[in-house]
Amino acid sequence: MKASTSIASFVLLLILISTNCFYSEAQRCRPSGRIIGKKPPPGECNQENDSDCCVQGKAYATFKCSPPVASQTKAQLTLNSFEKNGDGGGPSECDNKYHSDDTPVVALSTGWFNNRSRCLHNITISANGKSVVAMVVDECDSTMGCDEEHDYQPPCPNNIVDASQAVWKALGVPHNQWGGLEITWSDA
Ligand SMILES: *[C@@H]1O[C@H](CO)[C@@H](O)[C@H](O)[C@H]1NC(C)=O
Ligand SMILES: *[C@@H]1O[C@H](CO)[C@@H](O)[C@H](O)[C@H]1NC(C)=O
Ligand SMILES: *[C@@H]1O[C@H](CO)[C@@H](O)[C@H](O)[C@H]1NC(C)=O
């Protein structure tokens, strides 16, 4: 083989490898770190509405990214209260207000919350052949957890749409099944 040909094919190989790495890097969202669970002090971590509490010594992955947003982005729908004294802790990050659980509002995992860029914007959530428009008011923090600020709950997974009761109602999910459902969402 001529030297110039082998150099050319080597360069081509390098280009192929680097674009391939870049491509998978953009597609994949890897953990940014991990947190070791601490036992909630007595009275912390309100479990009234099935909130998860950190387990002493358990490792939880943290994420700064979420899967790429598509026209129908797959997500896990969870249940949250956005009311004062609800299980969401403080007021919503986007407007520093509490929201009635009778209004369709959601919190998104950190990557999708995207540094507040979806704050007070609406998303369409679909499941069971039904859909509902809900407003993004808060972040489900994928980067931190297991501390007082997060009520000793683990960091949020990176694919969560955490929704008020109104969203679950609108999707026609029977009450005894509220809490975990695979849905798709898109920007409204
Ligand atoms: C649990 O949910 C009920 C309604 O389903 C709500 O009234 C109550 O405030 C919630 N409790 C907490 C701690 O979030
Ligand atoms: C998030 O937004 C704030 C205010 O607009 C900006 O200062 C900050 O650099 C942004 N952070 C990231 C990670 O984009
Ligand atoms: C989102 O929907 C609410 C309720 O329909 C509406 O008041 C609000 O203006 C919408 N937000 C945006 C950014 O379109």
From TrEMBL:
<dbReference type="InterPro" id="IPR036908">
    <property type="entry name" value="RlpA-like_sf"/>
</dbReference>
<keyword id="KW-0964">Secreted</keyword>
<keyword id="KW-0732">Signal</keyword>
<dbReference type="GO" id="GO:0005576">
    <property type="term" value="C:extracellular region"/>
</dbReference>
<comment type="similarity">
    <text>Belongs to the kiwellin family.</text>
</comment>
<protein>
    <recommendedName>
        <fullName>Ripening-related protein 1</fullName>
    </recommendedName>
</protein>
<dbReference type="Pfam" id="PF24300">
    <property type="entry name" value="KWL1"/>
</dbReference>
<feature type="signal peptide">
    <location>
        <begin position="1"/>
        <end position="26"/>
    </location>
</feature>
<dbReference type="InterPro" id="IPR039271">
    <property type="entry name" value="Kiwellin-like"/>
</dbReference>
